[in-house]
Each structure stands twice: as structure tokens, then as C-alpha cells.
Amino acid sequence: MKKINLVSIAIASLFIIVIVYSCHRGPYAATNKSYKKQVREFSKIIKKYPLEDSSAVAFIGTTNMTMRKPNFVIIHHTAQNSCDQTFKTFTLPRTEVSAHYVICKDGTVFHMLNDYLRAHHAGVAKWGNNTDINSSSIGIELDNNGFENFSENQINSLIELLGRLKRAYNIPAANFIGHGDIAPTRKNDPNWRFPWKQLSEKGFGMWWNDTTNITVPEYFDRLSALRIVGFDVKDTNAAIIGFKRHWLQDTTAKMTTASDKILYQLYKKYQ
């Protein structure tokens, strides 16, 4: 029993660490207090053994454990007109939406949720066979109303943040994607102006090479290719628009010879 208690204390101590170190007094002092309270409640759940509804006859605490870690990064635009508007949205319980990070136009990065906790940023979404993106991802919001370019300072800060996340959690290059990729019927963020090519050159996201000498097979199955890349193809037009927005900065649903070549090349990379 002593060993079990030690394991329980260790788990609780680890979980308390997830209280964000940057919590400060100011306009969000009250919500920071609420954040800490919720983390304490999570800690209480973790310390329970066995769980109240468990059918297990006993609890034997393993000594081999780590915290769950993210495997995807999902990039968004806020669809609001300022960081202050976004902070308010993410600190009102009734909105039920959040993200791990917000990056303002001047490049300032705000950390809103510990990386190991589950943010409500993806909503109903799918990428490959993953239908619970929130549980395996970090959400990053860029202050952008959806109709404007992203600032240089903002992108520079994003690249720096992505580098830290990739190193910390060993996130594969292909797993840096957009909200519009995982939810193409509902979302279009980050908008078509987002510099995915620039990010891919830094190792965040996939990109295509020169397609001049690419020959697309006569019976190339576009839908299967989109599915292998990761898209949910239940809505064909939405999947095509999502693909073209990300890799061609185009928001139309018509496939062309050029877009077929790009899709075919990506399909080969993702196989």
C-alpha cells in the first residue's frame, strides 16, 4: 500500500505542475484562478484508485508512466479582430472553445493551456482515422480575421514555437496541419494567404516539388489520394477545396491538370 501511495503522490505532483507558470494578476486574474481550480479537480481524479466505476478487484500502481503527449499541431486563424477579443472568447465558459497558444499580430505569444491538457479547438474533425483531434493535438490560434495577410512577426514567432513543440514531442513533419484540413466542411482556417510552403521549408508540414516531369496515371483515383493524404472525403467538394486551399492557395473545387499533378505527388509522399 505504501508503494501505491507513493505512485499516487507522484502522479498528483506531476499533474499540479501543469498549472501554467505564467498565470499573472491583471484582467484575467479571475480566469487564471478558475484554471488552477480545474487543474486541482483533475488531480483529484487521477489520485483515485481504482476508479469508482471500475470492475477491477484491486489497484496495483505501475512504476512505469509518463504524461500523455500531443502528436499533431493544428493551426487556426481566430476569425476575430484582435487578440483581446480572442482572450475574452477563450475565457468565457459559455463559449466552450479554447486553444493552447495565441499569437498576436506583433508576434507576441500567449500560452493559454498546458500542452498536456486537452483544448477545445478542433471541434468535429477528422484526419486519416483520427476522429478525436483534440485529444492528440496542440491548437495554435493566429490573430487574423480571415480576410487579411499574416504579419511577418507573427509567422516568425509561429516558426519558433513550432520548432520547440516539434523537438519537445517529436511531432512528425506531416502532422502540422490546418483547421480547414481536418474540418473542410465547416472551416477554412488558416485562410488561403497562410504561408504553408514557408513552414514546410522549416520542417513543419508537407509540400510538393517541381511537377514538370510528373505523369499522372490515366486512372488516378483522386478521392483515394485525398483520403491517403488525410482528408475526410465524405464531402468531395469540401475535401478538394481544403486540399487546394492548403497546397495551391486556391479556394475553388475544380481539379485541373496542375492540381492533379500536385495531388499525385503528395499521395506518393504520404503512402
How do the helices and strands line up, and which of them pair or pack?
Blueprint: H1 2-16, H2 29-47, E1 72-77, H3 83-90, E2 101-103, E3 109-111, E4 137-142, H4 152-169, E5 176-178, H5 179-182, H6 196-201, H7 222-229, H8 236-248, H9 257-270
Parallel strand pairs: 1-4, 1-5, 2-4
Antiparallel strand pairs: 2-3
Describe the structure.
This protein has 271 residues and is an alpha/beta fold. The chain has three domains: 1-67, no CATH class; 72-193, Lysozyme-like; 222-270, no CATH class. 39% of the residues lie in helices and 8% in strands. The chain has helices at 2-16, 29-47, 83-90, 152-169, 179-182, 196-201, 222-229, 236-248, 257-270, and strands at 72-77, 101-103, 109-111, 137-142, 176-178. Strands 3-2-4-1-5 form a five-stranded mixed β-sheet, with helices on both faces. The chain starts with a helix and ends with a helix. Mean pLDDT is 91; it is low at 19-23.
